[in-house]
Amino acid sequence: DTGVSQDPRHKITKRGQNVTFRCDPISEHNRLYWYRQTLGQGPEFLTYFQNEAQLEKSRLLSDRFSAERPKGSFSTLEIQRTEQGDSAMYLCASSSGTNTYEQYFGPGTRLTVT
Amino acid sequence: AQSVTQPDIHITVSEGASLELRCNYSYGATPYLFWYVQSPGQGLQLLLKYFSGDTLVQGIKGFEAEFKRSQSSFNLRKPSVHWSDAAEYFCAVATTSGTYKYIFGTGTRLKVLA
To answer: For B62-99, how does the pLDDT look when each residue is reduced to its tens digit (9 = 90+)?
Structure first.
């Protein structure tokens, strides 16, 4: 068990560009979460997958954001036409079906939009 | 609606002094509560959790927290702070229906004076 991993750890992009982040959850964890953390704030929920199904999306997730978990394993979060307000830490977490309340967090991807 | 309040944005203590970080939650049912620590630029590390049972919970790094239902509080304590404890601390509550997503407080930044 290597924990939740995220790639890349840091991403600097210019406004208007598209970016994609990847999250690899703990193997056999069927629940996967994305959170966003802006400077000086706590993480805020973005979206949730159970296996490959995206079951909830926050209102924070504008139509420029899309997330997938195609085979119920890794997940990607894509931001199209990035804006400076998208600059944040994007955190991924996973949990198992038998211990649903305990989420394990990855190290995060820090996005800077210039 | 569920919420978590951390009233103290910044706290400064001297090394060796005791510490208490406050957390108040708003939730109708029995809450599932967590404290996380985050060093600059890093992900979240779980300090401790409360699901049920004994209301005094022991965690890692010498931290403990006490669940008080009557006060809707889950305050984090440490008897003697070390300089390495300087970080940001987040309290969180897990929703208990549907997604089991976390709701985080805004965090308390701890500064430790030598």
So the answer is: 999 999 999 999 999 999 999 999 999 999 999 877 78
| A11 in reach of chain B (CB within 8 A) | no
Q: How far apart are CA B66 and CA B11, in angstroms?
A: 19
Mean pLDDT over each residue of chain B, to the nearest integer:
93
Query: Residue B91: which residues within 8 A CB-CB, separation 6 or more?
Result: B4, B6, B21, B23, B25, B33, B34, B35, B74, B76, B104, B105
pLDDT in tens, chain A (114 residues): 579 999 999 999 999 999 999 999 999 899 999 999 998 899 999 999 999 999 999 998 889 999 999 988 999 999 999 999 999 999 999 998 777 788 999 999 999 999
Q: Which of B91, B83, B80 is nearest to B112 (CA)?
A: B83
CA distance B36 to chain A (A): 10
Instruction: Show which of residues 53-112 on chain B sit within 8 Å of chain A, judged by CB atoms.
Output: 90, 92, 94, 96, 98-107
B102 with A43: Cβ contact below 8 A: yes
How many beta-carbon contacts under 8 Å exist across A and B? Answer: 57
Chain A hits for B4, Cβ within 8 Å:
42
